[in-house]
Amino acid sequence: MTAWTADEPDKAGTAEELEIASLGPDGALSSVRTIWVVSLGDDLYVRSVNGPDSAWYRGATHRHEGHIRAGGVDQDVTFIETHDVDNAIDAADRSKYRRYAESTIDRITSQDARSTTLRLVPRGRHQ
User: Yes or no: is domain 8-122 CATH 2.30.110.10?
Assistant: First the structure.
């Protein structure tokens, strides 16, 4: 796996939204979905607000590979399921998206959404 460059986690993590697409069984990218993203240190994290039944999440966890674009970052990634920083991600979501209704924030920090936490790890360098 490849590491993020020094500024990529900050650039992508401070973007309002992230575009995400997963690799399908045939190796082609799925339709792009727009979702929220937060950074913690040098890592980027996403969740499915609609829980594990969301089409984009199912695709992301099938092959664990895809592509993201946010804040000038355009990168192939590996999706890694993780729950070791769920509380910190909740806090980051609440801080970053605080201008949204509390009910919206409650959805991205719900148990269903927390069950879909993915860390984005760069793979290769997109040219």
Answer: yes
The SS3 assignment for 62 reads helix
Residue ranges per domain, the chain?
A: 8-122
CA distance 47 to 123: 20
Cβ neighbours of residue 37 under 8 Å, at least 6 residues apart?
Answer: 12, 13, 15, 17, 18, 44, 45, 46, 68, 70, 120
Where b means 16+ CB within 10 Å and e means fewer, 45-54 reads: bbbbbebeeb
> Using one digit for the tens of pLDDT, what is the confidence trace for 1-29?
578 998 999 999 999 999 999 998 888 99
The three-class DSSP label of residue 85 is coil
Measured CA to CA, the distance from residue 57 to residue 55 in angstroms comes to 5
**How far apart are the C-alpha atoms of 88 and 39, rounded to whole Å?**
10
